[in-house]
What we know:
Elements: H1 8-26, E1 39-41, E2 44-46, E3 65-67, E4 75-76, E5 90-92, E6 100-101, E7 114-116, E8 124-125, E9 138-140, E10 148-149, E11 162-164, E12 189-191, H2 202-206, H3 210-213, E13 216-217, E14 223-224, H4 227-238, H5 242-245, E15 252-255, E16 258-261, E17 278-281, E18 286-288, E19 298-302, E20 318-320, E21 326-328, E22 337-344, E23 349-359, H6 366-392, E24 418-419, E25 441-442, E26 483-484, E27 491-492
Parallel strand pairs: 2-3, 3-5, 4-6, 5-7, 7-9, 8-10, 9-11, 11-12, 12-13, 14-15, 17-23
Antiparallel strand pairs: 1-2, 15-16, 18-21, 19-22, 20-21, 22-23, 24-26, 25-27
Amino acid sequence: MQPQGDLRGPWLLLLSLLLLVFEVARAGRPVASCPAACLCASNILSCSKQQLPNVPHSLPSYTALLDLSHNNLSRLRAEWTPTRLTHLHSLLLSHNHLNFISSEAFSPVPNLRYLDLSSNQLRTLDEFLFSELQVLEVLLLYNNHIMAVDRCAFDDMTQLQKLYLSQNQISRFPLELVKEGAKLPKLTLLDLSSNKLKNLPLPDLQKLPAWIKNGLYLHNNPLHCDCELYQLFSHWQYRQLSSVMDFQEDLYCMSSKKLHNVFNLSFLNCSEYKEHAWEAHLGDSLTIKCDTKLQGMTKVWVTPSNERVLDEVANSTVTVYKDGSLHFHRVQIEHGGVYTCYAMGEAFNETLSVELKVYNFTLHGHHDTLNTAYTTLVGCILSVVLVLIYLYLTPCRCWCRGVEKPSSHQADSLSSSMLSTTPNHDPMAGGDKDDGFDRRVAFLEPAGPAQGQNGKLKPGNTLPVPEATGKGQRRMSDPESVSSVFSDTPIVV
């Protein structure tokens, strides 16, 4: 008969094993071996280069990195894994034959931070395709056949920092991805090189902050050559941005079906790029940003007199905001000059210089300028109208004319042939003749030596004065008349 103490040993061992299995099950870690086609090391599963047509089943829930690259996967459906992989942060699916991805395919992996879909056969990126990946930081989609990118394909990806879309067939620049404060607020790298981009939204790209332009790669695209494109990339070259400095030889454009380097467009006669100064007028409010190539840098501003500009201080006309911007509350003449921004970061330091020109007058806006010009034009027109009225519409001042005096026969000369348009009132005329209107007939006949060529009168000669007959007296016309008649035809006056 065995002692009672010897029976306790096996029971204690069995109880310990049961407790261990219970703890493992409670932790959510099933007692499952590594898939046969994969190589497992701790929480890393490598199933690469196994010619797999489908994703292996029963993947351990504790998997943190899953490598399924270099296989024969063609579709990624919503049920590609029955197990929810909440610990998975990296998923590698490159070098497969993927041509379809369900919009619900990433629901089982909500904490994914790195996704590699490069070197597949994807053609379109549909709306809300990656919306489940709200903490994803890096997305690789290069070397596919992508032609269309839906404007909502990357919605809700607020943590995405790097997006690789190179070596595709994209022809529309996705401006919505890089606009400041847009869908991807933390995006610092967008690779669109080696696509089919021909036209770029140049004014919008010029307005982007330097930390976005520094990671915007556009080389190896058949861009259209023009001076605006040259100015854009020349500015990026002046700022030493990585997107230009690393691929200067691969930045080219197309003109007349020929490739030209964007920095050698002499056939367009483009003007050289010059950094422009900031301009302001007296009393203006102005904010100048320290446009650094990295975000989150510590910034310090120094005035033209080599004095540090303090942070927001009461009653100060020049202050520095919390985001590092230099703000002028009311611009004064003494504010003109070159300001320097010293930016300090973990990777490198950066120094920027900005020139401010202040004009010694106030500017109230373009509406006032327009009103002033309009008023001046109206004033000029009114002045011209008044001058014309004065010249042509002023009434004749008859009172200033002298009193008519009868001219003697001896004083009558060539000027006597002029006929007055106003009736003559002769106080010496007969009594019963109508004084209101005096009708006369004058005959001008050449007389011997006074006749010139073609019957015209020669100046200096006199005409014979006919004698008065009857009650009326025939007299010569008023010498101050404005009409002259040299004719043998009788004229009724």
